[in-house]
Amino acid sequence: MTAPVCTSASAAAAPARQTLPHPRLAPAGTSLYPSFASYVRARHPALLRTARSLTANPSDAEDLLQTALAKTYVAWERIEDHRALDGYVRRALLNTRTSQWRRRRVDEFACDELPEPEPRPGADDPAERQALRDAMWRAILRLPARQRAMVVLRYYEDLSEAQTAELLGVSVGTVKSAVSRALGKLREDPELGLAH
Fold it and tell me: Is the entire prediction scored with pTM above 0.90?
């Protein structure tokens, strides 16, 4: 892969590129490409954001960026226009990710019927569970603010009646009666009745 090279007059006017020693001639204990190291330090956060946009898993994004930077390091002497480094690394990111997609190709076979997993006994449908959760939250949002706060503290935050009373600055009896009324309203909520 070659990097874009600018051949305009402005490129000719730019300072000459530093000639880097051959790997075998570099003094022991020194970095062959000190400008590569400074480039990586300066641009790592932006390049990592690009890698994360190409893959959903943050660990995969870091691996992807490391691979692209390794490819850039190998080609460092051939990159004539160091103003185009970001573009070079981004292209390496994209090409590497594309290669990964191709390697993970999944064979697809046409069939008359879609294979559906057999329902496990006692297992409910995840879509129905989510629909019930959504209906429950809508019903809780319809409760008066004080009852809603008590229900959330008691059943979603798992606080005791005493902790709920202390947090809201009311008596335990107030919490008991308000939660009881709220649960009654939730039992009578038409949307929750339809969800069962």
Answer: no
